[in-house]
Amino acid sequence: MSDITTSKPWRRLETLAAASRKFRTIDLFDADPDRAGAFSIEAAALYLDWSKNKISREAMSALVDLARAAGLEAAIARMVSGEKINTTENRAVLHVALRDFSGRSYVVDGVDVAPQIAAERRKMRDFADKYERGGLIGFSGAPIDTIVNIGIGGSDLGPLMAVEALRPYWLGGRRAFFVSNVDGQHLGDTLEALDPSRTLFIVASKTFTTQETMTNAESARAWFLGKGGKERDIARHFIALSTNERAVRAFGVAPENMFVFWDFVGGRYSLWSAIGLSIALQCGYAVFEAMLRGACAMDEHFRAAPLEANMPAILALVGVWNRNFMGAAAHAVLPYDQHLHRLPAFLQQLDMESNGKSATLSGARAPCATGPVLFGEPGTNGQHAFYQLIHQGTDLISADFIAAAKSATPLGDHHEKLLANFLAQPEALMLGKDEAQVRAALAAEGVSADAAGRLAPHKVFPGDRPTNAILFERLTPGALGALVALYEHKVFAQGAIWGVNSFDQWGVELGKTLAMKILPEIAPLGQAKPPPEGHDGSTRRLIERINAWRASKEGWL
Ligand code: F6P
Prior knowledge:
The protein is an alpha/beta fold. The protein is 46% helix and 11% strand. The protein has 22 helices and 13 strands. The protein has helices spanning 8-19, 25-31, 35-38, 57-69, 72-80, 114-133, 157-165, 184-191, 211-226, 234-237, 245-251, 277-283, 285-304, 311-325, 343-355, 387-392, 414-431, 435-444, 449-459, 477-498, 509-518, 537-551, and strands at 40-43, 46-49, 107-108, 111-112, 146-150, 175-179, 199-204, 238-242, 258-260, 330-335, 373-375, 397-404, 467-472. It has a six-stranded mixed β-sheet, with helices on both faces. α11 (245-251) links the parallel β8 (238-242) and β9 (258-260). α14 (311-325) crosses α20 (477-498), α15 (343-355) packs parallel to α20 (477-498) and α18 (435-444) packs across α19 (449-459). The N and C termini lie far apart (58 Å). The model has no long low-confidence stretch (mean pLDDT 97). Bound molecules: 6-O-phosphono-beta-D-fructofuranose. 6-O-phosphono-beta-D-fructofuranose is lined by residues 152-155, 205-207, 210, 213, 267-268, 353, 505, 508.
């Protein structure tokens, strides 16, 4: 693809962005009584309103032209056709196939992979049904009722986020834990609460080589053997989810206890595959499948809807507008739903690992800003922490506000209050409060004109802070699936516009390699180590400092 910033729509958008400095977002509503209707869309039971962004109808249509100029429609077709669009890893990208129940074929290297996907789903269903019935029996003869998913990145964040989101659907008497960090405190703290004879460890790793996961899995096995489990019991207490059969076997998990997935499923897109087994176990297989079907509804919309009425494409284009033309450096995801408390962390990987790139597909340097910094916390918590900066900071931050109209756990007027905040913040961010309004409010409180003059600059809200609202009736498994698919396709569409490969993650490699080199330089507790060689001066000194402290066995042991 040629440099998108030299395209006609990009130039047009630059002109429109410059012109937009002369008006305020609210002016667009005043001039266009149907703006809220025109800038909102419903698909797969989700409702998106993007009207509070400073985008005119003209700019919107130029954005759609931009997507066309970047070849987004063709890119979607290439992805779902099984083409190896992940060119740096020579892989197809077919997470949509994992949640397609239509009977379509998905051909990779001349083979239709749909039957393999369906077979693995059946295996997951049978296993989950057995767990639900209490049919998985531990070494003491009692049924297994606790699962521990050991994985990291996509092998942790997706299932963890979904299990938390689907809390109202948890099976009675079942518990799910997630261990990801190589910090032994994560595993150690988790194991404290567990009965080994009732626990199933799920080792989840696409590659089955990830340092954190393999270390945690080995330690979990050692703990299990130290707590009464025997080698012969490993088979019923340890299962694996992976693409790497050989490594799973070498770890000691029997092939029948392995659930597979494939290279065409990226780690951060893997919760729909065997990696989602913990969701099916904690909530029941039917709930897992309902989530897949919700995602599928969004996929069908993404494939078929014209770009001007295509929810993921619109969300992507609004993001491109804010990032590339309005100068937003960061994007906040703010779910007004406690059960979505891990959604921002999940989306951080999805978005930042996918589009945090400086090289385009051709190897050239990206000619424009690519993926923004993504962060977030559930509302209303964030309001009492970092919203200050979004309202009055020197950087423009765009934000998605997400909420369900009905709560799964209605309690007094909690949900009404939650929704009032969900609505008030975007309104405040858009409208702001100018100096005249501030002075008038202060005067009404009896503050002198002098004092008001001193206070006013601190109380002014610039407004025009762009936000999207994403609404659904209730956070059902289907709504969750659609929501996650919406973000997956948004990220893909943005990658297509920026011309980057959204499906590799070479940027994680360098740190991993250096950590392997440093590992033998860290002194075992109570032992001395010679000063390390190589490294920069800072790292060398830090290693020396750590090793000096570790040489003494005093303190926590
Ligand atoms: O280091 C990044 C990464 O490769 C992610 O992309 C991936 O989700 C995570 O590590 C875990 O990888 P695996 O599932 O192979 O253990």
